[in-house]
Amino acid sequence: MSLLPVKERAEARDGGAEPADSAVKPAGSTEPTDSAVKPAGSTEPTDSAVKPAGSTEPAASPSASAGKPTPAYREYLRGERRGRWLVIVSRIALLVALLALWELAARQKWVDSMLTSKPSQLAASFRELALQGDLWKHTWTTGLETIVGIAVSMIAGTAIAVLFWWSTYASKVLEPYIVVLNALPKVALGPIFYIWLGDRYSVYGMAVAISIIVTIMMIENGFKELAKTKLRLMESFGATKLQMLRMVMLPASVPNFIATLKVNVGLTLVGVVMGEFLSSKAGLGYLIIYGGQVFQMNLVMVSVCMLALMSAVLYGVVNGIGRLLMRKYQDGR
Amino acid sequence: MTAAQIEMREVGLSYFTPKQETEALRDVRLTVRAGEFISIVGPSGCGKSTLLSLVSGMLKPTKGKVLIDGQEVTGTSPKVGYMLQQDHLFEWRDVYGNLLVGAEIRRMDRAKAERKAAELMERYGLGGFARHSPAQLSGGMRQRVALIRTLVAEPDILLLDEPFSALDFQTRLTLADEVHRIIREQGKTAILVTHDIPEAIAMADRVLVMSKRPSTISSEYEIRLKPEGEGGEGDGGTLTPWCKREAAGFQAYFNAIWKELEAHVVTSG
Ligand SMILES: Nc1ncnc2c1ncn2[C@@H]1O[C@H](COP(=O)(O)OP(=O)(O)OP(=O)(O)O)[C@@H](O)[C@H]1O
Ligand SMILES: [Mg+2]
Question: Where is the ABC transporter domain (chain B) (predicted)?
């Protein structure tokens, strides 16, 4: 009975109809986007969102109802699909409309195109920059910095969260420091990073500084929740800390990891661009600052568009990884 | 008569939190022989789960001593299988994976554990659900998975904390019979905590009644029932729970325990 609805719901959610999702979640929100997977500790499979149409016997034959969907269920699926398409089409239409309006406003001199630039001009300078090859070089630099930054803060952040779980003493001692570091505006550290790490590596410093604290806090939060519930079972079997880590903490934190990863994409990009603003000689952040200084609106706009594109791609990749992990997580081992 | 396998000597336990201390158990004395089946009943919150946690080694007594096979309990031991009140199934593993958790932690022979898990699943009506995720099971099915998970680890002593509470009445009675049989066959020692007085009488050789908090064991009923229609003193151990429910003296035990519990519940309210 529940086999099909659960699967279907997962797909329905994964279909991309999640407009509010790209917003950066505040630290401590652990919930993954896929609500099909219950957080650890919830016990009842309440299928309130999806009605198991027509099926009556839960225990008798779980695969029977999956064989031939009833007309009502098919109708429901069709409705879902239609809704999904409508959202996608509307998104594209909105983008086109905005671009058209922009172009029109610039051409009709409603606004000063010196200040606002316009889409056609942007396309032209994009082509120019792309042909020179410079744009790719800068995009690649920023992209690499972001990916490395995310990887470093995820790995180091998880390691520190594990340490905090392992030693309650350490976590208690260090807690106020973490809170203060979290509140500290990381830009203030820019000059320090520059002097310590040089113009290239200070960007990494900034990126990691911005995202690692939130990573630690989010992952640690998830750990604490688990410690109250699932670990009691492990304890009853006499599990060692290492076994608890391997069998419970890490696998149960998968949804939390994904949520953290999504937050990290946004934060790390902020860190990277900020780092480039402050010190770098390459990257999209550098390009934007440079374009602003020589008053080349086109250069600035193209770079900003590239940044937007890059964050979309990164977000998509993270989403894909998340879905892959989630599927593994859902199907057991 | 075999020697005591579980012994609690004047055990007291208080929970300490920064705000207050809660005295859950006071002066609990208990001896359980090897192969014996004990039931514990008592008002909610009196410390039944606490008592099981003490025997399992997950809690240390504030006062007194807990001994298993003559040795003081200092931590969890592979001899003891504790089925917790909550099922704590792992959502990231399928049912089969969940059943093997205990065996995995204790590094037992995997093939053997797998065979045992498969057999028990079949017997407890979970055949065909091996690859399901726990989210796809009902509350009663989850409880059965938790029970099998405990049995797969092959403990000598079974601590069962309300193992049948989420089951429908039919399944409850049949499963009780089944579990009783397994425990008897393999000569395991068992402590069962339940709120169901008939179940406590039907399953056990002895029923212990606990008083309200700070609680202690207020009385003990040795269950001696003979099969219906036969004369002479019966030995409770040989009867199935089902038969015991129909035996002549059953109602008398029920009434006695009911009266006693009523007094505890009323005064604790
Ligand atoms: N971790 C804890 N910290 C503080 N107090 C606790 C803790 N666990 C239990 N207690 C207290 O100890 C008492 C006994 O709890 P316990 O869980 O053993 O009761 P119980 O007899 O199993 O109840 P029930 O039948 O409802 O399961 C309760 O009053 C409870 O408030
Ligand atoms: Mg309890």
Answer: 8-237
Q: What percent of chain B has pLDDT over 70?
A: 93
Give the integer Cα–Cα distance in Å for A216 and A221: 8
Take atom 5 of ligand 1 and give the residue whose Cα is closest: B15
Tokens of B26: 């006071």
B85 and A CB contact within 8 Å: no
The per-residue pLDDT for A62 is 43
Distance CA B170, CA A17 (A): 45
Residue A114 lies inside a defined structural domain of this protein: no
Kindly state whether A185 is in contact with chain B, defined as any CB-CB distance less than 8 angstroms: no
Q: A75 and A208, same structural domain?
A: no
| CATH for B4-79+155-268 (2.60.40.2470, 3.40.50.300, 3.30.210.10, 3.40.50.2300) | 3.40.50.300
- For residue A113, tell me if it sits in a domain: no
Q: pLDDT digit string (tens) for A30-84? A: 444 444 443 444 443 444 444 444 444 444 444 444 567 888 889 999 999 999 9
A positions 301-330 inside 8 Å of B (CB): 329-330
Q: Compute the nearest-CA separation of A253 from chain B (Å).
A: 10
In a domain, A35, yes or no: no
Q: A59-63, A109-113, A270-274, B29-33: lowest mean pLDDT where?
A: A59-63
- Chain A residues touching B135 at Cβ < 8 A: 2, 6, 37-38, 45
User: Based on the structure, what is the number of domains in chain A?
Assistant: 2
Same domain membership, residue A178 and residue A310: yes
* Arithmetic mean of pLDDT, A268-286: 89
Q: Is there a single domain that holds both residue A189 and residue A96? A: no
CB contact under 8 A, B138 and A229: no
Domains of chain B: which residue ranges?
4-79+155-268
pLDDT at B108 over 60: yes
User: Both A70 and A179 in a single domain?
Assistant: no
pLDDT tens column, B138-184: 888 888 899 899 999 989 999 999 988 888 888 888 888 888 888 88
Instruction: Give A45's contacts in chain B (Cβ within 8 Å).
Output: 135-138
